Amino acid sequence: MESTRRDFVTAAVAAAPLFVPFRAFGANDRPTFGVIGAGGRGRYLADKFQKQGTQCVAIAEVYEPNTDAALKVSPDAKAFVDYDEMLDAVPMDFVVVATPDHQHYPNLLACLKRKRDVYLEKPMSLSLEESELMVKAVRASRQIVQIGMQRRSAEALHKAKALVDSGMLGKITMVKPMWNWNIARPIDNSPLPGKLDWKRFLGSARDRDLDPGRFRRWRYFWDYSGGNMTDQGTHLMDVVQWFTNTPRAVSAISYGQVAKMLGSETPDVFCAVFEYPNFMATWTLNYCNSYDNGWSIQFQGDEGTMILDEAGYRIWKEPWPKNPDPVERVDAPVPIESHIQNFLDCIKTRQEPNAPVEVGASAVSAPHLANLAFKQQRQVRMPSL
């Protein structure tokens, strides 16, 4: 019997393996890979992967200036516009997918069809329904698929979770993930320099005339993305659910607005409230302010409070006014290198990576639910699973 949506969300916690330490490949052991989507993130990942002892042999990209920039990072790679053509033409050990969200599902299926392992950027899917289909497709194959949620491979976060599991915070009643970043600007719709294959960019999205702003800022349009609700939210809501051993929300409400990113469809300021069986979470993002710049997650328990952020984590005991100094403090940023290395180790050992598709589906499920609530302007419950 085929797995249901309940299978992929409830399996997420059990499926996530333990932290795998860093281990470099030997000089004579150099896996090869191709990149689908060579924008800024794709080039960043190509560079990071190559520094881990791998070789980029092919690039598939619809925008010529991105291809030119990617070839500077990977000068020996062959360039393609069509990713199917690339997958058929060039032998490679794995594929790095860093395309817009609406391309993740067809890109993944194309790689699985050619029996290629995949490092797939988050958010994994464009919808709850796509998540289910992607989990089924991966589990019908023998391929290793890692979702690009690097916190799952951060040793400091594994230590922080162990402290939460020990009961150090007591009963957790509220969790507050947050992201502040003052980068919102009106969308630039001026003509694009260089050649763009607009039809291939659209893929399965609705057809429309070339719109430079939609290409430049695709994350801010519903046809191609869940906005920052699912982009940054996938990272942070994953940690919320991982640390509380709760794979999915019960319901969500959401409010947001386009404050400064004029021309955008998705909000640049928002707040979502999630109901879980034993606690609640508020996920807020403000791209118009840089106070407490970056990401943070606050876990509030009746015996203590933990704050996670890019610097590491701190824990304060209750009652806070009498305990102003943290009782635990670890300064450790979140390195993407350990997440990449975990994937490279797993393509050799064929073990499950730290962020398999079940984790990817669970992580983005609450943000998808919040987007449904935002669009419908009401509280939305997780579909019956």
Describe the structure.
With 385 residues, this protein is α/β, with parallel strands linked by helices. The chain has two domains: 167 residues, 3-Layer(aba) Sandwich (Rossmann fold); 167 residues, Dihydrodipicolinate Reductase, domain 2. Helices cover 36% and strands 21% of the residues. Strands 14-13-12-11-7-10-9-8-15 form a nine-stranded mixed sheet. A six-stranded parallel sheet has the order 3-2-1-4-5-6, sandwiched between helices. Helix 1 packs across helix 12, helix 2 packs parallel to helix 3 and helix 5 runs parallel beside helix 6. The longest helix has 20 residues. It is globular and about 65 Å long. 47% of the residues are buried. The N terminus is likely disordered.
Rg estimate, integer Å: 21 Å
Mean pLDDT: 93
| Distance from first to last alpha carbon | 15 Å
Strand content: 15-25%
Just give the CATH class of the largest domain. Answer: Alpha Beta
Which overall shape is indicated by the principal axes computed on the Cα atoms? globular
Q: CATH-wise, what's the superfamily of the largest domain?
A: NAD(P)-binding Rossmann-like Domain
Q: What class would the helix/strand composition place it in?
A: alpha/beta
Fraction in helix: 25-40%
Q: If classified by CATH, what would the architecture of the largest domain be?
A: 3-Layer(aba) Sandwich
How many strands appear in the DSSP assignment?
15
Strand ordering within the main sheet: 14-13-12-11-7-10-9-8-15
CATH topology of the largest domain: Rossmann fold
Detail the poorly predicted runs: 1-27
